[in-house]
Design a protein that fits this description.
This protein is mainly α. The chain is built from 14 helices and no strands. Helices cover 81% and strands 0% of the residues.
Length: 368
């Protein structure tokens, strides 16, 4: 079955429902991830800001007392945030370590709530098989929502911190003596630079979307290959009832053929060709466009510093912040695309969870 792209409206609806399901059943899983990502993502900006102040002081007044104060503040705040981040990470990892079991419990509880006539339908088992196959393939479905939530939150924190640190880059005027470099402050130049940044970010996201879409469409093929791989590779050995037949009828040659030569995961298999061909090409293009964004930002920052708009410390701050902004913006778009690719799998999951529970509940009157 070919996976079709969901609309953005459907993607948002399904993703919100999946997130709400996780939060209602396991709020600690969401809270631990939120705490860790918030601390982990904000920590680098503290180092960037203080490093810029230290470099400015070294290049300017060289006040020993001021330098000592900045260094101690940098070390103290960074150490405190690192310790807090380690505690939050430990909490997050503890919660994430049993997420597979929690996902299975959601499916199992749905089965236990079903009436036997619904439970015994082949369609019910088919839906559950698709859900588990997609989950084993690449954690598509409910598990993917947890990763996407962390990626979205991290991207938003990165963008917010970077915007706060780069405001001075665009409002710091170039001195009058800089001749042609004064054009860097012209509104058309700033508008063109913004359009170039947006174009690079969107182009990178489109290239990544193409590779991710191809990758997600291989899910059913991979699930079938996994079943064949585990059946011919492990079932004849682990099943005592089959082992005797394998030895008696020399079936190991058949198992060996499918296990080694007929696997879709082989170096000449379809998935391998896709991963080293169109998927790899599109992801490489996306990474190249991301680096181009950083390169353009470097050139603009260096030109304004050359013109005398700000000092060397600000160069460090702006370059670090813009690099983080590019990573955050591209990560945000990639995650939105990933959510859209995950929407068909969530649709299958909720189709299973929404199966009607027709079991009678309550009391029945009996004749005496």
């Amino acid at each position: 079955m070919k996976k079709t792209k969901a609309s953005w409206r459907e993607t948002v609806s399904l993703s919100r429902r999946a997130f709400s399901l996780w939060y209602q059943r396991h709020p600690a899983l969401i809270l631990s991830a939120t705490a860790y990502i918030a601390v982990h993502s904000a920590t680098p900006y503290i180092a960037i800001w203080f490093s810029a102040r230290i470099i400015d002081e070294l290049a300017g007044q060289r006040d020993t007392g001021r330098l000592l104060q900045l260094v101690l503040l940098t070390l103290g705040i960074t150490a405190a945030l690192t310790l807090l981040g380690a505690v939050c990470k430990r909490w997050r990892e503890q919660q994430r370590s049993i997420r597979y079991g929690r996902t299975s419990r959601i499916h199992t509880e749905a089965l236990l709530d079903m009436d036997f006539c619904v439970l015994d339908r082949q369609e019910t088992y088919d839906l559950l098989s698709k859900i588990r196959g997609a989950q084993n393939w690449n954690q598509w479905g409910l598990l993917r929502i947890l990763d996407c939530y962390e990626q979205l939150l991290e991207a938003l924190v990165r963008i917010g911190g970077a915007v706060a640190l780069t405001v001075g880059l665009f409002i710091s005027p170039v001195p009058q003596r800089s001749d042609w470099l004064m054009q860097l402050d012209h509104p058309l130049v700033l508008f063109g630079l913004l359009m170039l940044f947006l174009g690079l970010v969107l182009s990178s996201a489109v290239a990544d979307d193409y590779g991710t879409d191809l990758y997600s469409k291989m899910g059913e093929e991979a699930a079938q290959a996994n079943r064949r791989f585990f059946f011919f590779g492990f079932e004849p050995v682990n099943s005592a009832s089959r082992t005797l037949d394998v030895r008696m009828y020399r079936q190991e040659t058949i198992c060996g053929y499918y296990f080694q030569n007929a696997s879709v995961f082989g170096w000449d298999g379809h998935i391998s060709k896709m991963m080293t061909g169109p998927c790899a090409g599109s992801w490489a293009a996306a990474a190249g466009l991301e680096k181009a964004f950083t390169g353009v930002a470097y050139v603009y920052v260096c030109l304004k510093a050359w013109a005398g708009a700000f000092g060397v410390g600000a160069v460090t701050q702006y370059i670090g912040a813009i690099t983080a902004m590019s990573q955050g913006a591209i990560s945000l778009l990639k995650t939105l695309i990933e959510l859209r690719s995950n929407a068909p799998y969530l649709k299958t999951t909720f189709e299973f969870l929404d199966l009607p529970h027709e079991m009678y509940q309550g009391s029945l009157t009996t004749e005496k």
